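ok here's Small ribosomal subunit protein uS5, seq below lol
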Amino acid sequence: MADRGASAPARGGGGFGARGGDRGRGRGRGRGRRGGKSEEKEWQPVTKLGRLIKPVQKQTRAGQRTRFKAIVLIGDSEGHVGLGIKTSKEVATAIRAAIIIAKLSVIPVRRGYWGTNLGAPHSLPTKESGKCGSVTVRLIPAPRGTGLVASPAVKRLLQLAGVEDAYTSSAGSTKTLENTLKATFTAVSNTYGFLTPNLWKETKLIRSPLEEYADTLREGKKY
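and the structure came out like this:
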């Protein structure tokens, strides 16, 4: 009898074991709730629109006015690229207008070689730079196979322009994506800011009157 009395408190004594008793470790009523249907998570698309579209605000008397700015790049990867930026109250309207502006601002891009001119042009003909706001972007030709050493936005612009190999260096507040793209677009457009010798127009040189009538003047004849 003494042994049974001593063992009874040990079975249901203090601590966590006393609350469970013969029911186990708390499994039972809560099991049905966990075994039900899991909560469905809301589907969220993973796109790059967060980089190209951003909300901008303006403080007015009535409060803050929020609009959406869209940045669109277009190109054929064959030496033509365009940049369009538009702000509107609706996202769809901003994208549609930015596409139209980008199509109207298409410019030719001259491509060149880093070393020998073998094969198709793969890089830029010379070093070019562009500036917008505090951002300055410099484009440097690179050897074949180097690729585009640039930020994602600048790399996408150069890809659409048809440039395969190039180094880039930037300074200023490059976090401002709009100014960075504008500076790169200006640098790319400067590739046709000069004419190479193969594009010079052939002109027929005319002798000056002193050279043409040198013999007559030497004789000293008066008319």
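fwiw The domain at 49-108 is CATH 3.30.160.20 (Double Stranded RNA Binding Domain). kinda neat tbh
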